[in-house]
Design a protein that fits this description.
It is a single chain. With 279 residues, the protein is mostly helical. 76% of the residues lie in helices and 0% in strands. The chain is built from 13 helices and no strands. Helix 1 (2-17) packs across helix 8 (99-131), helix 4 packs antiparallel against helix 8 (99-131) and helix 5 runs parallel beside helix 9 (138-162). The chain is flat and about 60 Å long. The mean pLDDT is 81.
Length: 279
């Protein structure tokens, strides 16, 4: 365990040395200041996003969600491939440290940075709400808790891909593609549940959904979809499904499967790393 934690600490120091963490911190602070200026200009917020709380919820699930995704990929895309290619890993695995421990330490470092980022973003958005005169938002914190788990899943997939691909940029691009495919499969699965697709095609989509990574649904997104659905139901009749019906609820089975899937990806990353050659 000490070996894993040593690798994790070394990885965090390396990200700090490269000024990566400082860059993301300064960027998040700049965004917070921009959002505070916006919410203090009530006419801008009210005309576009509604109340300050609605504004913060929208950017938390939108702009800041993308920002956090970039952080997750940035701190994990070079976890394995690059160190094994440029010889950095040799300095560590030449000691009594197994390769799976090296991978576990790198992933723990990525997870720690991701969770810290989510906490920082949650605090900053709460500051924006307080600046606007609103109180503590429980659902905002629940959102960043779920977002933290989802981003760790993405980081684990990125780490797995980095055991197969040496170039971090390529790893990042493939991760984004995989993430988009997973989102598309999730949408198709909901259409199967709503009986839009059936028969053989529906069965294939359902099987593919179960074998793809599982992301939990943010309560913030659920609330936003319910609001959209309620507003649309009061207007002209629609032929498509209600937006809230397109979300997969966080059942106990889905949560267990998401955790199990994360564990499988982590173990597989360690197995592949044991077989990876040093250059």
């Amino acid at each position: 365990m000490n070996a894993i934690l040593s690798v994790a600490a070394s990885s965090i120091r390396e990200h700090s040395r490269r000024k990566l963490l400082a860059f993301f911190m300064l960027a998040s602070l700049a965004l917070m200041l921009v959002f505070i200026v916006i919410v203090l200009r009530a006419e801008d917020v009210g005309g576009t996003f509604g109340t300050p709380t609605q504004f913060v919820n929208t950017i938390s699930s939108g702009v800041l969600g993308l920002f956090a995704l970039i952080v997750a990929i940035a701190v994990s895309m070079g976890n394995v491939g690059q160190p094994f290619t440029n010889g950095e890993a040799m300095l560590i695995v030449s000691r009594p440290v197994a390769r799976w421990q090296f991978v576990a330490g790198k992933l723990i470092a990525s997870a720690a940075i991701i969770l810290a980022t989510c906490v920082v973003l949650g605090v900053e958005m709460q500051v924006v709400l307080l600046a606007a005169g609103d109180g503590i938002s429980k659902i905002l914190w629940l959102h960043w808790l779920v977002e933290g788990f989802n981003l760790i899943v993405i980081a684990s997939i990125t780490t797995l891909l980095s055991t197969l691909i040496s170039l971090p940029v390529v790893v990042a691009v493939v991760t984004v593609i995989v993430n988009q495919i997973v989102g598309g499969v999730g949408t198709l699965y909901r259409l199967v549940v709503l009986d839009v697709f059936g028969g053989f095609i529906g069965k294939v989509i359902e099987v593919v959904w179960w074998i793809t990574p599982k992301y939990l649904t943010s309560p913030l997104v659920e609330e936003q979809m319910r609001t959209i659905g309620a507003s649309e139901s009061s207007g002209p009749a629609l032929t498509g499904p209600n937006p809230s019906d397109m979300l997969v609820p966080n059942s106990s089975g889905l949560v267990a499967w998401a955790i199990a899937y994360l564990a499988v990806v982590v173990v597989l990353s360690g197995v592949l790393a044991e077989r990876k050659e040093l250059r």
